[in-house]
Amino acid sequence: MRPNIDISHTLGGRVKDYAEANDLDLSEAYAEVLKAGLEALETQDQQ
Fold first, then answer.
1. Which of 1, 14, 15, 39 lies 20 to 30 Å from 25, alpha-carbon distance?
2. Which domain of life, per UniProt (predicted)?
3. CB proximity list for 3: less than 8 A, separation 6 or greater
């Protein structure tokens, strides 16, 4: 399920493609993308 935020169709499509390529459902894909993004931001903050 897509989070209740404004996500462009292009970005949503990229997450959907990621889900299909990695045999995930859409909720799992969004969770992985968000987690990876947060980890990347946290790493930037520590530098």
1. 39
2. Archaea
3. 30
Phi, psi values for residue 34, rounded to 5°:
-65, -45
CA distance 18 to 29: 7
What is the spatial distance between Cα 47 and Cα 45, in angstroms, rounded to a whole number? 6
The CA distance from 3 to 14, in Å, is 15
pTM for the predicted model, two decimal places: 0.77
Contacts of residue 12, Cβ cutoff 8 Å, sequence gap at least 6:
2
